[in-house]
Amino acid sequence: MLAVWCVDSGKFVQLGNDLTEQVTPLKHQQLAFVTNWDSYAMDRTIGRPTADLYIVDLNTGARTKIKDHLIEDRSIQPSPGGKYLIYFQDDNYWTVNVATRVVTNITKSVKTTFVNKESDETIKQKPPFGVAGWTKDDAAVILYDKYDLWKVSPDGSRATQLTDGSKDQVRHRYVRLNPDDEFIDAEKPIYVSLFGEWTKKSGYARLNLNATIATDEHAIWLDKGVSRLAKAKDADVYEYVLESFEQSPNAFISGPDLKNAKQVTNTNPFQSNYAWGRGELIDYKNSHGEHLQGALYYPAGYEPGKKYPMVVYMYEKLSDGLHRFSAPSERDYYNPAAITAHGYFLLEPDIVFVPREPGVSVVDCVTAATKRVIDMGLVDPKKVGVVGHSWGGFDSVYLATHTNGIFAAAVAGAPITDLVSNYGNHHWSSGIAETDHIETGQQRMEVPLYEDLPAYIRNSAVFNVQNMTTPLLIEVGDSDGTVFFHQGVELYNIARRARKNVVLLEYGGEDHGLRKKADQIDYERRIFAWFGHYLKDEPAAAWITGGESFLDRQKEVKALKSTPEK
User: Quick one: 447 exposed, middle or buried, by C-beta within 10 A (0-12, 13-18, 19+)?
Assistant: First the structure.
């Protein structure tokens, strides 16, 4: 437990009193703040972090209670000068003046919202957009709403909107160029990153904090991925990186205005010798009328008028990654460039979740996105497959067992297949009970299984196996500390009993993601063999139709180890 040793006087003061608390000293102050969750220990284990907040004197150890029952105490941050604490509760930011102990709601009169009300997290307090930082001497705090930066005084007396991103739905976020800077220097222009919510354009702008809403033109604004802005330590020289699905990432050097930048790298120059895909943004709506988007990637060497097979890769919201470049690799087994190089369209759709209906939400959003692409006349509607890993694996097995005639094949890596049996399980690597992940995490079930057992059953793949028509390939590592590998085994055994077309790949000694080179290559090759058979009518490999003995598998592993990497 944290203590203070006053070197001059020899005095020793114990600050921490309990293992169920965290003591954090404040910079430039003789004070610390304490979050104590002794009364809320169970809440924390089920994804509802709550604590009591105290200020403690470093010289005496005396404590002053500031706030009882602070929900989401992880939002507490000290100002760099140590004069204030800031936290988020009841959809507002609050500050604590550590000298006077006065607690103030500093955003109640600001004409915007700092909470992400579109979040589908099943927690009492929806998450805020975040804190950019503080100006010198803790004079003001810079806060984010959905699109913009706001400068707010720590006593709530004044709030100034610094950017105007909401007009065009462009997200502005502060770029800290020097990680050693404690404060945001309001006397100098700062840089903000730009991202178009619906266009996926990105770039950077310069901003004057002492002005009203910035009128600066975007310094750089492109329909590409623009990222990693950096500054030379001792010169006004700046660097950023440009990339897209078609363009390998390259570094560009410029002056402070970021104009007329010079390209200084040429990564993967041989790429031009090969056929390559391209990315495109699609829009669609789910059954609730929500506007969603997806990233659609064309097969390498695409021929207009020809209908192609398509692979759908899933994991919550993915459309923001439209301009992300991927170098094909046999060891990156869900690699987008490899999928398109094999002659498939690749769709990465956005999924939004209704509380207590994770599986139902997946069907709703993914089938809507798939039908949107089919309506574009680009893909063969009878040759569409789905793939995902972990939570995306949940998506795959649920679609395989709860849709008919839409998907011709499915691949699921490390999937959650049964919310009922998994509810009492663990994240074995961390020792955390699965209850928090299921109720307030990705599975979004909101309540324990005994309060809504029908919902747990309705959203589990295993309880509808008897109706499965989609061939399913399941991958597990038998040392998985995140999703217990019995989840995959459970679905496999039940599906085999129901005489369904299902194959299980079990990799010995592997965790949640495959780490061994031979296993990575093996899994990717089997994915393409699986999709090749069911989406391209290629002859089935022997392991697909007849399984594989352990000895035959060992011979393959030995051969893989002697094969040069591609």
Answer: middle
For residue 128, count other CB atoms closer than 10 A to its CB.
23
Question: Between the CA atoms of 404, 408, 412 and 417, what dihedral angle is there, to the nearest 10 degrees?
Answer: 10
The Cβ of residue 207 has, within 10 Å, a number of other Cβ atoms equal to 20
Contact 203, 222 (CB under 8 A): yes
> In this structure, is the dihedral angle defined by the CA atoms of residues 266, 267, 270 and 276, taken in order, positive or negative?
negative
Say how many C-beta atoms besides its own lie within 10 A of residue 38's C-beta: 12
**Assigned token pair, 341:** 């190089």
State CA 348 to chain mean position distance: 14
- Residues belonging to the chain: 566
Q: Where does 274-561 sit in CATH, by number?
A: 3.40.50.1820
| Cα–Cα distance for residue pair 396/374, rounded to 1 Å | 19
Taking a C-beta distance cutoff of 8 angstroms, is the pair 387, 334 a contact? yes
Give the DSSP H or E segment for 221: strand 220-222
pLDDT at 213: 52
Calculate Rg over the CA atoms of the chain.
27
Token duo for residue 334: 């869900």
Instruction: Encode pLDDT of 467-504 as tens digits.
Output: 999 999 999 999 999 999 999 999 999 999 999 999 99
- Per DSSP, the three-state class of 518 is helix
The two tokens of residue 41 are: 């220990």
What's the pLDDT tens digit per position in 47-81? Answer: 888 999 999 999 999 999 999 998 888 889 999 99
